[in-house]
């Protein structure tokens, strides 16, 4: 298409919050859009840019004000977020300007919903802005209710659960932790609520979930915004296989010990291994670490456990040596590769939204051990809405004990309910694949989005500026 006398195709700049659980789905979105004919550029901080290695997507640095070591360099969340807003706005604007006289000027910024200032930058440049939510539709809907004043903080649901059409009744236990103890996480809570501060100005609201997964809830959310569900954002090889060589996200803040994991998994029986990971952010208490360690050791199952370098000191002394025969402990792995391996029979997960979508998309039954944030709500869905696993019960100090862990492992691996859980897990895998495959609900939404960016169409009667 010709525009302003130049060869023109839509060009999106994709801006994630610079942590693993946000870079993964946004980078995946960039790859998906590039595979459909858009030019895509990932804009990420100086500190994280060196961790990205991906084909068909441009990668450009912006600054969060802490170019040496990112968040770790800031005094606290408050300082970090403020600096990111100021320096990020300026450097994102410079990046958009850099392409202005090129053959492919930027016509849309897809920004992490944590960074709503990016929409202001897009609008200053007269281009589209699309907010990308990395949580479930249910969690977005809960925070939106707070923003709109329908729910007050701290959330108290001791007597009546929160009823959201399409979701199981949500009790106090199932609510995101930021809402139960708002004073404990002021900066994060403000950031979560800020996602909605200028959302009505956003041209699209993209959600990393899919219609079949959160059907009714998703409908409710799209009544509030021009919402589009485009997930699951997982490398194509594990779902539709339409993007060539797309086997990993393409960003890793830690070095995955892939060969070691694959070699070890090859020696294991089909569906015999318990894979354990608490994602990139959770820090367990020493007690919780011990309970998991002794729970795994005492169970009859073999296990692969990701214990990040920063958590190693909490492992009971001699644990790795005393479990050499049945377990492997690594500091980081390629989680998708592990989940896709036929030896893995169960995923003990903190229920971060990416891990939840990954387990579901690969059809792996789960034991949820949620610790904070939206993990608690996701675990509820794993157990009650989708029936693809169980949620482990915590004791009064918030720890999951060794016996409870073993009980959950037995339920999922071999108990009465395990057959049903496995059946549900395979069905959800098929639905996830369908959603992102040609003509699926998410695929159609992505095509629609791409169509607008390539053709500059109207969105539901609104003529959008700048394109
Ligand atoms: N992950 C990984 N290797 C690991 C553990 C996690 O690649 O050893 C990836 C995982 O595939 C997921 C992301 O890290 O995409 C974690 O995101 P999630 O939302 O599950 O949790 P968070 O880290 O944000 O708490």
TrEMBL record:
Pfam family, one: Glyco_transf_N
Top-rank taxon, per record: Eukaryota
Sample GO molecular function, one term: quercetin 7-O-glucosyltransferase activity
Keyword flag Lyase: no
Family matches, as PANTHER family: GLUCOSYL/GLUCURONOSYL TRANSFERASES, UDP-GLYCOSYLTRANSFERASE 74B1
Entry's family note: Belongs to the UDP-glycosyltransferase family.
Protein's recorded name: Glycosyltransferase
